[in-house]
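Teaching note: in complex prediction, the entire set of molecules is handled at once rather than each chain in isolation. The prompt given to students was simply: 'Predict the structure of this complex.' The entities are:
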Amino acid sequence: MKQPVRIAVTGAAGGISYSLLFKIAAGEVLGSDQPVILQLLEITPAMDALRGVAMELQDCAYPLLQGVVLSDDPTVAFKDADYAFLVGARPRGPGMERKDLLEANAAIFSVQGKALNDVASRQVKVLVVGNPANTNALIAARNAPDLDPTQFTAMTRLDHNRAVGLAANKTGFATPTINRVTIWGNHSVTQVPDLYHADVAGEEAVDAVGEDWYKNTFIETVQKRGAAIIDARGASSSASAAQAAIDHMRDWALGTYEGDWVSMAIPSDGSYGVAKGIIYSFPVRCAFGRYEIVQGLEINDFIAGKMKASEQELIEERDAVASLLPAETEAHLENVQIADRSNRELNARGLNADEKAVFTERF
Amino acid sequence: MKQPVRIAVTGAAGGISYSLLFKIAAGEVLGSDQPVILQLLEITPAMDALRGVAMELQDCAYPLLQGVVLSDDPTVAFKDADYAFLVGARPRGPGMERKDLLEANAAIFSVQGKALNDVASRQVKVLVVGNPANTNALIAARNAPDLDPTQFTAMTRLDHNRAVGLAANKTGFATPTINRVTIWGNHSVTQVPDLYHADVAGEEAVDAVGEDWYKNTFIETVQKRGAAIIDARGASSSASAAQAAIDHMRDWALGTYEGDWVSMAIPSDGSYGVAKGIIYSFPVRCAFGRYEIVQGLEINDFIAGKMKASEQELIEERDAVASLLPAETEAHLENVQIADRSNRELNARGLNADEKAVFTERF
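The expected output is the structure of the full assembly:
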């Protein structure tokens, strides 16, 4: 049997984690032959509830679950972690301004970034789910100078999956026939769901759904889907957010399908003119546990304007917490470039037949 | 690609289903090559919440999910269903006596039994999760005279998994090394967690955990685990119940591991002296989509007394709703015997090499 990998999850007694943990333990991230140890972080007042969740994990008798660690100390929960799902975040309270919210979360994610820097595996893959996810990921990355910034990502996969699901529902085609959908920018209402490079069952996606409907209904529906779910369910999206987190991490670890790509919010390397350093959602392909931005897509003015607006929002978010961000060191910037170059080299030399075996098979 | 199977789930907007549906759609029951259509039943006032859940299912863009049907009419939700998870049940309200609870649920499950009888696939596999699960399953079965009673089962897999998890936690061995645990009887505090035929990493389980601890701590811990979870979490077991439902149906459909068995509450055929016809949990092995009671286990007096008490409870539950139970017809009883005989013949002739391939592989 393989050696177990350590998977840290924060906000582990919350609603999203209640769906997420039982999927991780069942093998949905890394497959049914990969044992895992769950390392769960909560705030002190939630430790009793967390023990209840751990009891239920034990009660599932998962063959793959080789251990569960519970802690309110990030240096315990992140110790040697190979994967970290940062789910917990401070929600907006009554009377809280946007800047208050950003700062409250900056405090959380700077502590967690430092802890990851100090104790996590040097190859740790970090996914920030807690909102504002992109800027929280930026804060964590900047507080982890010994890690490569490209190890820090934020989740736009829920938006990506929503876009695929909506296109499937509109056209009647199954989701595996829908490829190369992109979410650009921030995981917020400024996100840009882009169908111009996508296709549905071999037809250009914008034609398949109709350009009017795409521009006037599709984009806004995806952007505001979170609120629509709350209206219908009376509770926020938990199960679908957990599934998106699973999908994000699985594809990052095991690879994307040939002919398709996924959306991940990652440190911008300047591709498509996006300001370097902010955590921005791009179309990416994954292989060998790395991701690479899909290059060379032609961006029309309609999309370019929206991309700029979302970039602007992220720059403003960054600036709002600037006083809490450690300076970006030269070495840190160099890391981004090295990681980026390495990814490009990987892509440029192509994949041989053996290496392709690491891609998961699409049925 | 395979033809989709239809999976009906009742109480589909409730807590257990919120974990269950997203596992079914991800392929945890029937594997990653089996498309599914979910047919979801709720009471009329919960249809808005159910639409919210369906939106989230769409938002996951599951490759295997080929359709979702929402209805408050069981003849719609059960139409051609190959599998039915009966999760929804009436919980005990304030001032409600045990008999009131049994009768309120008898009303629900008699309607659902009739609907399954009228519209479900003739091979439908039914799992009752909603409590009192055993007697609810009995009521549904008796209201479905055209189906084989052995198609109706109730869930003691959560108790089974809890017993395995607890033994693993006590001994430090991984759950796959713990085999042949049994839950006898009712899914209630009278259930009988039996370790006398089990082993842990090759050692007799009762020796591995210590007989005193087994008799004085283990049994009661498993019996009262539901209440302990509520104490810790402030909410009842949902995720672990959903996982147990997945495990029950998966093993029934795809087979149990060689050298192990699972616990399922099924119509008693009189094995081990248990009154015929009541839905009683036995150790079973599954293959070819059928289950068979493990025969020939030696039952000591300690266990036998507890088995009798649980049987007595189930007889009382049955008698409390007797006025609502259609008479058991000769043909219906004959069906039980035919199904039972057929299962025995299957086992008696043994499995050839090809047939063994249907067993799922244990790593």
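Point out the following to students. The first strand of chain B starts at residue 5 and ends at 10. The mean pLDDT of chain B is 90.
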